[in-house]
């Protein structure tokens, strides 16, 4: 490939991933063509992009960007995966597929998050983190808990008193019925 063509391809790649700050490198070697098409369709439905990329061209395209550390010292054929609702959701999806026997040959090799290079082991650790939706539900629960506790503390004694008054009134009603 001539230098002119390499420059064109690397500029195209840079245009595709220009605003991407977090991505994963995955292995797709060994997957059948049908599995790859199915994988790309599933990814597309979830807003995830997959780009099989030559390492030297990727290094050229990512030079000076947040993705540059991902391509330092990598070997073999890799695919770049980015997108999804948030990075943790992307990692969870890729890790789930790595463990799926139906998609044999697909595995996470590393990536980059906030300019930090990730190893395959680190990707597995990140897959255990809560994603954005889970984090929001945790935070909202923590914000609402003090109010719920205060409400219960304020309403609890009143409910207990009302219950006792009702019980005493029922007892007195029974005793008046027996006395008649």
List keywords for this structure.
180 residues; alpha+beta; Alpha-Beta Plaits; five-stranded antiparallel β-sheet; 6 helices; 5 strands; 57% helix
CATH topology: Alpha-Beta Plaits
Major sheet attributes: 5 strands, antiparallel
SSE pattern, N- to C-terminal: HEHEHEHEEHH
Uncertain runs with pLDDT below 50, 5 residues or more? none
Q: Look at the structure and give the CATH class.
A: Alpha Beta
Strand content: 15-25%
Oligomer: single chain
Head-to-tail CA distance between termini: 109 Å
Q: If strands are numbered along the chain, what order do they take across the biggest sheet?
A: 2-3-1-4-5
Q: What count of helical segments does DSSP give?
A: 6
Description:
- With 180 residues, the chain is an alpha+beta fold.
- The protein has a single domain, classed as Alpha-Beta Plaits.
- It contains six helices and five strands; from the N terminus they run αβαβαβαββαα.
- The protein has helices at 3-16, 33-45, 55-62, 87-99, 120-126, 132-179; strands at 23-27, 48-53, 78-83, 107-113, 116-119.
- The chain has a five-stranded antiparallel β-sheet.
- The chain is elongated.
- The N and C termini lie far apart (109 Å).
């Amino acid at each position: 490939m001539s230098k002119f063509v390499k420059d064109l391809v690397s500029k195209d790649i840079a245009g595709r991933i220009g605003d991407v700050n977090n991505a994963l490198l995955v292995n797709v070697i060994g997957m059948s063509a049908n599995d790859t098409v199915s994988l790309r369709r599933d990814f597309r439905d979830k807003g995830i992009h997959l780009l099989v990329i030559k390492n030297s061209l990727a290094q050229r395209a990512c030079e000076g960007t947040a993705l540059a550390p991902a391509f330092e010292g990598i070997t073999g054929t890799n695919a770049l995966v980015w997108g999804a609702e948030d990075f943790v959701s992307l990692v969870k999806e890729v890790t789930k597929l790595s463990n799926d026997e139906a998609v044999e040959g697909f595995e996470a090799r590393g990536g980059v998050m906030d300019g930090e290079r990730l190893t395959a082991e680190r990707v597995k650790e990140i897959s255990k983190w809560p994603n954005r939706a889970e984090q929001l539900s945790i935070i909202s629960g923590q914000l609402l808990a003090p109010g719920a506790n205060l409400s219960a503390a304020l309403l609890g004694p009143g409910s207990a008193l009302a219950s006792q008054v009702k019980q005493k009134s029922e007892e007195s009603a029974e005793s008046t019925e027996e006395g008649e």
